[in-house]
Design goal:
Blueprint lengths: L1 H4 L22 H11 L5 H16 L1 E8 L2 E6 L6 E9 L2 E10 L5 H31 L10 H18 L3 E9 L1 H8 L1 H17 L6 E6 L2 E7 L3 H17 L1 H5 L3 E8 L6 H18 L4 E3 L1
Parallel strand pairs: 8-9
Antiparallel strand pairs: 1-2, 1-4, 3-4, 5-7, 5-8, 6-7
Helix pairs in contact: 2-4, 3-4, 6-7
């Protein structure tokens, strides 16, 4: 991925053509400047921001929606009596994204042509950004369980800490360790051990809210990040996970339970201190007799 980024220039940041310049359509020079601007990043969110800002200047765009896979990038504001135009980005006869453009006024024929021109040239870097996004998502997942991996956790907790410091909103961290998992591998082999880990991951996910995140750190250790969660929310979700694991036929068959440690972010925390408190609470739960919850 770093090799891909070498092709993206970082020094093209100034606006490059105005609405007055586009009254007669875009010249080849202006198109080249537009393309250069889009080549300053391969991050899909940054790319969408650049595109939106230029369209606001060039065509007085009021809103932009980019739909890809199960994701939606939503920029700008919907205005009353908005006029929308929907265009698709294609790759080998397959739709990879749908873009909905919103304007406050009806578009002239010339502006429709300019929009189509800009849309076509935006499609190429967008497809590259989507490929980069898919590679990054794949690299952020645990191969066995499809949960996030440690790298994904690190990225998310940095974002949550930043958000919590700006808005004074709490979030929770839950650490989980599967009790008696080693005996599954010892008695039944690693294939059955993998089945137990997959079942554990599915069970944890079912107990979380849509806004929560789940990760596997390796072995039989899992953790969850819970945005905008207080201590009571942590406890409620931890209890839900504990009960669901006890009710799983496969996990009950192998006498696999779960020890849980939790901690809530406060103003004096950083990612390391928060993790340490949750991790220490987990070890307290293990020392207490397993299959229980401790808060740090």
């Amino acid at each position: 991925m770093e090799q891909l980024n070498q092709f993206y220039q970082e020094n093209i940041r100034d606006s490059f053509f105005t609405q007055e310049q586009t009254n007669q359509g875009l010249s080849q020079l202006e198109l080249n400047q537009f393309i250069q601007k889009l080549l300053t990043t391969i991050d899909i969110s940054e790319l969408a921001e650049l595109y939106f800002e230029q369209l606001k200047t060039t065509l007085q765009l009021s809103s932009l929606k980019i739909q890809y896979e199960d994701n939606l990038l939503d920029l700008g504001d919907i205005v009353s009596n908005q006029h929308s135009k929907t265009l698709t980005c294609m790759d080998m006869n397959n739709s990879v994204a749908t873009i909905i453009y919103g304007f406050s006024e009806p578009m002239s024929l010339r502006n429709v042509q300019v929009l189509q021109q800009m849309h076509i040239h935006f499609s190429y870097p967008l497809k590259n950004a989507l490929t980069h996004y898919k590679i990054k998502q794949f690299a952020m997942k645990d191969f066995l369980t499809s949960l996030g991996n440690r790298a994904s956790y690190e990225e998310t907790i940095m974002r949550l800490v930043s958000h919590a410091n700006r808005h004074q909103t709490p979030f929770g961290l839950i650490m989980l360790d599967m009790d008696n998992f080693k005996q599954v591998n010892d008695k039944h082999g690693h294939n059955e051990g993998d089945n137990v880990l997959v079942e554990s991951a599915k069970t944890i996910l079912k107990c979380l809210r849509d806004s929560d995140y789940a990760y596997r750190f390796g072995g039989d250790e899992f953790c969850c990040l819970l945005p905008e969660a207080n201590e009571q929310t942590n406890q409620l979700i931890a209890e839900r996970i504990l009960a669901a694991i006890e009710e799983s036929p496969l996990l009950r068959k192998h006498k696999v339970s779960c020890s849980i440690g939790s901690a809530n972010f406060d103003i004096n925390d950083n990612p390391i201190s928060l993790f340490s408190r949750a991790d220490e609470a987990l070890y307290q739960a293990k020392r207490t007799g397993k299959n229980c919850i401790k808060a740090g």
